[in-house]
From TrEMBL:
Name of the molecule in the record: Probable butyrate kinase
Family: Belongs to the acetokinase family.
Catalytic activity: butanoate + ATP = butanoyl phosphate + ADP
First-tier enzyme category under EC: transferase
Keywords (A to Z) from UniProt: ATP-binding, Cytoplasm, Kinase, Nucleotide-binding, Transferase
This protein's record includes keyword Transferase: yes
Species: Labilibaculum filiforme
Chain coiled-coil ranges: none
Name of the gene encoding the protein in the UniProt record: buk
């Protein structure tokens, strides 16, 4: 039996998730939700470091977890330079790029930094990140936007999309590298990726104004109207950036980043909540259709995952739109905590060498 313990840390836009694994079993699992009001007190993401770290430490202490037994701390990785899928040691260069947020600001920038900070205080633990949000496997043609000033970049829920892709492949007795799937991760951000034989060849930038709108992001906006708004003199750059990320999507329309709250309102007969929930579902369905053409119609399965995949009304709306393409399989929640821990065990067992970020 595996006796070594691994701590997995996953800061998301609407939550901080923590898990302690012993082998493939989680001996502790906690999902702490953060409302938009709670996070509004912080300017930059880096300012949330102490807040999120203190929450994690308090939860571990309250649960009487013997943290000195932990041998690896694996954090969800953030917006560093585009890199290959895999597990990376948290080295000085990685920490520097997580602090800067080379490709922007997102809570996952804190994953590696908090992992490192906690590991440093433990007798035998090392810190890693696995499949960060900047995993980049896009094909060249997908990188080209309609203007050379703007190159498309791969920023998405790489960790969970790949974990769910592998889980689906296993369920049909195939290897992830042998199937074509479309994965829609429906969380604080929404990403829809085309996985061709184990590589995500196209995906919307879930962070920065591409794809479906989400609980706290605008997704694609009409470019001309956006340019006009920017130069109206009524908004600062910071305000416009917040409209796109943090205060877009459900927050802008309904005033909450809690999709469950919107689901309850829609169920109770609130017509606006229903329209906005339907519009979010509609945009996801449309994005799945796009990715089906990226895969030239050769789609083994459409996989819906993330917290919002718990919502049956939203799932049914999407199913009605896309079931003609391929079977739809729903994986509510995410497999990120296990994916982080299993990557850690592969390193501890010497099955893989952690990559060096440079
Ligand atoms: N049981 C549920 N039913 C409907 N929505 C849910 C449920 N559980 C979580 N959600 C919604 O999922 C979203 C968060 O998804 P999650 O994948 O945890 O995101 P993140 O990691 O980005 O914080 C929130 O808007 C939350 O309200
Ligand atoms: C940065 C892309 C991944 C993402 O949007 O994650 P959350 O849904 O956790 O914010």
């Amino acid at each position: 039996m595996e006796t070594r313990r691994i701590l997995a840390i996953n800061p998301g836009s609407t939550s901080t998730k923590i898990a302690v694994f012993q082998g493939d079993k989680s001996v502790f699992l906690k999902n702490i939700k953060h409302s938009n009001e709670e996070l509004a007190q912080f300017g930059k993401i880096s300012e949330q470091f102490e807040f999120r770290k203190n929450i994690i430490m308090k939860e571990l202490i309250d649960a009487e977890i013997q943290i000195d037994l932990i041998e690896a701390v694996v954090g969800r990785g953030g917006l560093v330079k585009p890199i290959e899928s895999g597990i990376y040691s948290v080295n000085e260069r990685l920490k520097e790029d997580l602090r800067i947020g080379v490709l922007g600001e997102h809570a996952s920038n804190l994953g590696g930094l908090i992992a490192d900070n906690i590991a440093q205080a433990l007798p035998k633990a090392k810190a890693y990140i696995a499949d960060p949000v900047v995993v980049d496997e896009m094909i060249d043609v997908a990188r080209v936007s309609g203007h050379p000033e703007f190159e498309r970049v791969s920023i998405f829920h790489a960790l969970n999309q790949k974990a769910i892709g592998r889980a689906y492949a296993q369920s049909v007795d195939k290897k992830y590298e042998d199937v074509n799937v479309i994965v829609a991760h429906l969380g604080g951000g929404i990403s829809v990726g085309a996985h061709r034989k184990g590589r995500v060849i196209d995906v919307n930038n879930a962070l920065d104004g591409e794809g479906p709108f989400s609980p706290e992001r605008s997704g694609t906006l009409p470019a001309g109207a956006l340019a006009k708004l920017c130069f109206s003199g009524n908004y600062t750059l910071e305000q416009v950036k917040k409209m796109i990320k943090g205060e877009g999507g459900l927050v802008a329309h309904i005033g909450t980043n809690d999709a469950y709250d919107v689901e309850l309102k829609a169920k109770a007969g609130d017509e606006k909540a229903k329209l906005i929930q339907d519009a979010m579902s509609y945009q996801v369905g449309k994005a799945i259709g796009e990715m089906a053409s990226v895969l030239k119609g050769e789609v083994d399965g459409i996989l819906l995952t993330g917290g919002i995949a718990h919502n049956p009304d939203l799932v049914n709306y999407i199913k009605e739109m896309v079931s003609f393409i391929a079977p739809v399989v729903v994986y509510p929640g995410e497999d990120e905590m296990k994916a982080l821990a299993m990557n850690g065990y592969m390193v501890l067992r010497g099955e893989i060498q952690p990559r060096e970020y440079c």
